[in-house]
Recover the amino acids of this structure.
């Protein structure tokens, strides 16, 4: 069974009391970066607070039923009736695109994703069947019930530029981090060494409903039941660890910051096959 990498006391989760006092129900990890925890998954808001319409970007689009939560957080953070310049995706799994169609239509927003994810976003291809035997825990056992059919974003779908830039996120680059899905990407800002990792690695045991509920910080590889390519997943974690991020927000679990986080990520990259890769995969 896969193990966790504990994150030591020098790695900080962000101050929930400060987040609540600010009143937008977001966890702010930089002045222009905040994330919202929606049941089992996170979405990320990039942009200056109160900057207005078309000045910000949403990364990923949550689970089914979360549109009102995302919409209300956006209003409080960026202003009434403010729409994103774009929605960008780490990948197209159901828990990252649950309300994508609703929000993209309502906001008339383009949707950017890696070209290898486009078949899952233009209605042409379903994701591979999950493997409920890996990871242990009820979330893994229930994985055959999770949606994996493609959605169809239609004419709003765009390709992330080949040069690594993100059109609506100046100062950021995208990094191809396949393994969990073929076109999975992470987002990196070198100026402050801030990483939006998606599901390339996560900070909770996503296979376990108990761990998902508690959200105790610990490093794991990608959610095992939905990861078909473990060689690529290992190389993706190594690629991200080599960036030496100071702060990271992942698709599942709490954002982390500090020297012990960076050391733990290096350990995960080094010991990936031992601690993250399911036996026999």
């Amino acid at each position: 069974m896969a193990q966790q990498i504990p994150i030591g006391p020098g790695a900080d989760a962000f101050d929930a009391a400060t987040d609540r006092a600010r009143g937008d129900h977001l966890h702010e990890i930089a002045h222009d970066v905040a994330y919202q925890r929606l049941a089992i998954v996170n979405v990320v808001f990039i942009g200056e607070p109160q900057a207005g319409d078309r000045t910000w970007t949403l990364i990923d689009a949550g689970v089914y039923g979360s549109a009102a939560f995302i919409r209300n957080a956006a209003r409080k953070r960026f202003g009434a009736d403010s729409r994103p310049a774009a929605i960008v995706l780490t990948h197209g799994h159901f828990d990252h695109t649950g309300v994508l169609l609703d929000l993209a239509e309502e906001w008339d927003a383009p949707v950017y994703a890696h070209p290898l994810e486009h078949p899952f976003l233009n209605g042409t291809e379903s994701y591979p069947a999950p493997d409920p035997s890996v990871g242990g825990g009820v979330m893994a056992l229930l994985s055959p019930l999770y949606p994996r059919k493609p959605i169809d974003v239609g004419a709003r779908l765009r390709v992330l530029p080949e040069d690594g830039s993100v059109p609506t996120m100046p100062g950021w680059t995208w990094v191809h981090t396949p393994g969990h899905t073929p076109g999975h990407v992470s987002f990196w800002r070198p100026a402050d060494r801030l990483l939006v990792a998606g599901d390339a690695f996560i900070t909770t045991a996503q296979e376990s409903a108990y761990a998902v509920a508690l959200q105790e910080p610990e490093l794991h590889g990608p959610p095992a039941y939905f990861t078909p390519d473990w060689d690529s997943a290992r190389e993706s974690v190594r690629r991200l660890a080599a960036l030496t991020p100071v702060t990271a927000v992942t698709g599942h679990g709490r954002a982390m910051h500090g020297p012990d986080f960076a050391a733990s990520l290096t350990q995960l990259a080094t010991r990936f096959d031992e601690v993250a890769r399911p036996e026999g995969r």
